[in-house]
Amino acid sequence: MSGPALRLAVELDGDGAHPAAWRRAAHSPDHLLSPRRVARVAAAAENAGFTLLTLEDGVLPPGATPDVVGRIGAVERAAFLAASTSVIGIAPVVPVTYAEPFHVSSQLASLDHISVGRAGWVVSEEVRPDAARAWGRPLVDGAAARARESRDGVEVVRALWDSWEDDAVIRSVATSRYLDRDRLHYVDFTGDTYAVKGPAIVPRPPQGQLVVLGRPDLVPAGQLDVALVEGRDLAEVTAAAAAAGTPRTFAEVEIALDTSDATAEERVADLERHAPWTDHGRLRHIGSAAGLAALLGQLRGVVDGVRLRPLVLDEDLLELSRLVLPDLFQRRHALRPLPGATLRTHLGLDRPANRYAAGAAFEALEETR
C-alpha cells in the first residue's frame, strides 16, 4: 500500500527486545549502564536516521529471569542523551500509576528545554503489585483503576505545561520582576484520588506540549498525540490504527534480522535456549533486511510511523543502519528528521495554543463587545 512517508522510532532499553539479548551484545555485562555505551547506541540510532528513540522504564527491575538485567531511570537517561544528541527525538517511558503528576510534569518540561523541543512522553502503567510497595503507595488494583490513574495523570501533566503562558518570563530590570504573575495559572484539578493546585515550577516547554505517546486502550485517545498500536498481522494493525482516533499512529514491530554471521532464525534460536521471546501480540519480522523494508513499505498509509524493537541492539541496529533505513529513504518510504526542528514538527503536529492564554484572549474579546 502506498501512502505518506513513515516516521521511524526505535526502542533502546537494555540490550534488546529479547530477555537474553545480553548474551549476544558487543560489550561486557558490566558496561550495560555505562554513559559511553548509552551514548553510543543513541548516536547509532541518530546517525541511521531515526526520528525518535524511546526508553522503557518502570520502578521494578526489568524481567524476572536469571539473565543480566539493569536499568537507570528513563528520564535521567533521556536528559543525558538530550545533551549528547542534536536531531533525534527522545521519549522516556514514564508510568503515572504511582508517580506524582506534578513531578512528572516538571521532569518532562525540563527535558524539552534541555533538548530544545525534541522531547516526548510514552505513557505506561505499573502493573505488578510490587511496584506499589516500592513506591510506598496503596495498590492500584485492576485495569480500570490503572486506566483512571493514567487518565488523570496525563490530564494534570498537560494542564501544568500550560500553567505558564509562553511569555510569562519577562526579566524586567526596570521593574525588578522576573515573572508576570498574571500569566501563571492555577490548574485546580480534582480527580478521584488526588487534587493538584499548580502552577508548575518550570516554564512552558518549547513545544508547548510534549508529544504524548501511548496505547489507546490504556490512555484515552483524546489525550494522545500518537497511538502505539499492536497486531500480529497487517490486518490487525490496520484495524487498530483505524480505531485509534488519534492524530498519529505508530505500529509496534519486533525485529530480528539476518547478519553476516548468522540468519535471523539462528540468532533467535540461540537466545531461545536461554529464555523465551514473549509474544506481546505485536507484528514480528524474523528474516532479511529486504523483507523488513518490504513490510514497512506495506505499512505506509496504514500508520504514520513504526516503533522498532530490535532483538539485539548491537547486531540489529547495524543492519538497520546499513541496509534497511537507506533503502527506505531512497524510495521515499520514510523521512529523516531535520536539524533544528522540534519533534512535533517532525511528526507533522502543530504547536498547541496555551489553553489559558486563549481563554484570556476570548474573555478580552467578549468585554469589547
Task: Give a verbal description of the structure.
The chain has 369 residues and is an alpha/beta fold. It is 36% helix and 17% strand. It has eleven helices and 13 strands. Strands 1-2-3-4-9-10-11-13 form an eight-stranded parallel β-barrel, surrounded by seven helices. The protein has a two-stranded antiparallel sheet with strand order 5-6. Strand 3 (89-95), helix 3 (101-114) and strand 4 (120-124) form a beta-alpha-beta unit. Helix 1 runs parallel beside helix 9. The termini are far apart. The model has no long low-confidence stretch (mean pLDDT 93).
Query: What's the number of extended β-strand segments?
Result: 13
Number of helices: 11
Strand order of the largest sheet: 1-2-3-4-9-10-11-13
Instruction: Quote the distance from N terminus to C terminus.
Output: 53 Å
Estimate the helix proportion, in percent: 25-40%
Describe the global form: globular
Radius of gyration over all CA atoms, rounded: 21 Å
SSE arrangement, N to C: EHEHEHEHHEEEEEEHEHEHEHHH
What layout of secondary structure does this protein have?
Elements: E1 7-11, H1 35-48, E2 52-55, H2 74-84, E3 89-95, H3 101-114, E4 120-124, H4 129-135, H5 143-161, E5 169-172, E6 177-179, E7 189-190, E8 195-196, E9 211-214, E10 226-229, H6 234-244, E11 248-257, H7 264-272, E12 283-287, H8 289-299, E13 305-310, H9 313-330, H10 343-346, H11 355-368
Parallel strand pairs: 1-2, 1-13, 2-3, 3-4, 4-9, 9-10, 10-11, 11-12, 11-13
Antiparallel strand pairs: 5-6, 7-8
Helix pairs in contact: 1-2, 1-9, 2-3, 3-5, 8-9
